[in-house]
Amino acid sequence: MNNPILQAVDPNTSLKDEPTPATPALAAQQPPDFVYDTTPDPAPAANSSTKPTNGAGNDAKPPPSSSPGPESEPAHLTPEELAKLDAEEKLLSEMRTDLPGRAGVPDGVVAITVAHKLPKDTFFRVNKPNTIEMRMYAKTTGLDTEYYAIHPCMWAAFASIDVLLAKFRLYEILTVDGAHFVHPVRQADHGDSQNEYSRTKEIALEQATTEWVRISTDKANKKYRVFKASKERYPDPLFPGYTPARLLTLCFADRGLLVDSPKHDLFQGLAGGCSVD
Questions:
Q1: Does the residue 25 lie in any domain?
Q2: 1 within domain boundaries
Q3: Which of 127, 162, 224, 237 would be 172's cystine partner, CB 3.0–4.6 Å?
Q4: pTM for this one?
Q5: Rounded CA gap, 117 and 177, in Å?
Q6: Is residue 143 one of the residues assigned to a domain?
Q7: What does the pLDDT profile of the chain (277 residues) look like in tens digits?
Q8: 195 lies in which domain range?
Q9: Is there a contact between 234 and 176 (Cβ–Cβ < 8 Å)?
Q10: How many domains, in total, are found in the chain?
Q11: Residue 20 is assigned to a structural domain of this protein
């Protein structure tokens, strides 16, 4: 015979006073004390005069407008500035020898400040789009060499006084130190071949279009040696971004180094002051 389980009962408490526990079914039917509405408030109408409060009362400021402001108008060049640009482009077109129907040489463009020598202890890069061939005259005085750009209208005049104009290829260069200049390299012309110094120098300049290089002189073999920097050593170069026409003007026309008339001092000095028909 099983004994009943006895439970101690407080004599001051009546069994009738104990709350009857709610069954799960009845508890599920009880509504919650609070119901949160997650539906977002509708946006105010565009023509509504009611100011949005965003829960902060009547003093709340409306959110800033996300609509973009009016676009600024592009700057317009004056007729004088446009005429100058057109004149520079015309001069470049006349000077270039690498256009169709000229000399059939590779594509390229022109210069900046013309430097006679390349740096031998500094890494540098070349801006390939601004490379051009043109006929020039190199005037050497002592240890200095100055380069003159010769306009095609003067080629025959120089030939009439037995002065040969050499063909040069000019490279726009930027060093790791920030030096920015153009370096001319003489090309094979008038039946002469390019010497070994010029040939190996152009090998270095061609490599410098894609990577940082420096050169050193191999006097025993009369040529240049090329050394490349690691790819992580220096960042990509940032060239000034001059147009070829502007570079031609800055390098030669503005510095008096463009010979386009028999009255130019260079031609007068070579011709002995004689006029040439």
A1: no
A2: no
A3: 127
A4: 0.60
A5: 16
A6: yes
A7: 455 444 444 545 444 455 555 444 444 455 555 455 555 555 555 444 444 444 444 454 555 555 555 455 556 778 888 888 888 887 887 777 654 333 333 333 344 679 999 888 899 999 998 888 899 999 998 888 999 999 999 999 999 999 999 999 999 999 999 899 999 999 987 677 788 999 999 999 999 999 999 999 999 999 999 999 998 899 999 888 887 778 888 889 888 999 999 999 999 999 987 766 5
A8: 81-263
A9: yes
A10: 1
A11: no
